[in-house]
Prior knowledge:
Layout: H1 2-32, E1 38-44, E2 59-65, E3 117-122, E4 138-145, E5 159-172, E6 189-194, H2 196-208, E7 210-216, E8 229-230, H3 231-234, E9 260-267, E10 270-277, H4 279-282
Amino acid sequence: MNRRLTGILLIAFVVAVACSYLVFRIVGNRLGSPQHRVTAIVAATGNIKLGSVLRNVDLTKVDIVGALPQGAILKPADAVGRGVIADLYSGEPILESRLAPKGSGGGLAATIPDGMRACAVKVDEVVGVAGFATPGMRVDVLISGNPPGTTVASPQGSQVRTLLQNIQVLSAGTDIQRDAEGKPQQVQVVNLLVTPQQAEALSLASNQTKIQLILRNPLDTKVVDTPGTGLAHLYGEANVPVGISKALRPVHRAPPPARVYLIEVFNGSKKTEAKFASHEEKQ
């Protein structure tokens, strides 16, 4: 009986020592873990619209625990006087990626990325997609006219081609703010974000051809290789490119087969056959 009691006490002692060791390790790790550093960074005091220039009254500081967001600004002096290239909201930390470079100011120019250009296109209600070509939208640019070396009376007639695809609208008139409700607005000029090469082509097309803006889904970034079409294609007078309705293609019907009469001639026991075309077919 004493041996059994001694064994039970020994096992209980070992279990108690193990539990004490585990508790000691857990508590020691928690007490010895480093405290997260708290850093004050610059944030917006209220909603700030795209194109605005930051002032001291637009800035405040908020505490961030742990790692800082990439591009966080620590001093208000590093943000004052810089243009906003994306809408900021109250309490949002201000990052370098949301501001224009120092000295570039605000407005439309500050929203143009490096290597890109803002090209103005004169529009009316039709060219401007009934006013729905608003800032932030994506459009295709179509041109129509007579190619060099052709005239209005040429066999092909006027032609239309897709000049540019998936082009961002920077501003509509004097408005560079994006309308969340997508309301149309009638303007006379639309600024498109293009490369220098696209700006040259668009400028030439504005003077020599008629331009039409085609609205597209901003999520649809696929570039489609279109062959273009001409006035003659609409009347089936030329090779119809892919995409033109089959109903507009010329229909070539084969002539009906000629009507032939077979005559059998019996001369005694000899039989012969002769074929003759009808009188109508001969005519």
